[in-house]
Amino acid sequence: MTLHLIKLSVGPKDVAELAAIQARRAVAEPPLRHQTRMKPKRAAEILDGGSIYWVVAGWLQVRQRIIDIREEAWDDGTSCAGLVLDPELVPVAARQTKPFQGWRYLPPEAAPPDLRAMGAAEGLDELPAKLRQELRALGLL
Fold it and tell me: Helices (DSSP H) in 1-141: which residue ranges?
């Protein structure tokens, strides 16, 4: 069974900034990955098609497929887990999310659908996240 992760994206103010940071990271230290202190115990389920769902500026907004989970080390030699990510950020039906520490498991039935799967209008995912949030709040999306 597939399992996902949900994680706060600390720092970026919007998805565009997250994408820019990741693009720089992918060039400087390939492959693109996110390092986290704890290795998921349910790694096999995550690697069976799972994604990391990013909470950006208080909103769960995008996901990335997790390609691999490997043992790595921080710069100081402390061990950590490296989540190797597909570089594509896939917009999802955004929802507000309260802050939390670390990452959490996200079962498939609780994961928001991709905007494309919802039949979203062509180019909708290109709109700034804040504008999409405002349109959603008005009931227009």
Answer: 15-28, 43-46, 129-137
Strand partners of residue 102: none
Is residue 52 a contact partner of residue 34, using CB atoms and an 8 Å limit? Answer: yes
Beta strand extents in 1-141 (DSSP E only): 4-8, 33-36, 51-56, 59-73, 79-85, 90-96, 103-106
Q: Is 100 helix (H, G, I), strand (E, B) or coil?
A: coil
Per-residue confidence at 138, pLDDT binned at 50, 70, 90? low
Q: What's the average model confidence in pLDDT over 71-79? A: 95
Give the pair of three-digit tokens for residue 68: 């691999």
Give the C-alpha separation, 94 to 105, whole Å. 18
The number of domains in the chain is 1
Q: What is the pLDDT of residues 81-120, one digit of tens each?
A: 999 999 999 999 999 999 999 999 999 999 999 988 766 5
Q: How many CB atoms lie within 10 A of CB 114?
A: 16
Domain of residue 67, residue span: 4-137
Other CB atoms closer than 10 Å to residue 140's CB: what's the count? 8
Which pair of structure tokens corresponds to residue 66?
């997790």
Per-residue pLDDT at 73 exceeds 80: yes
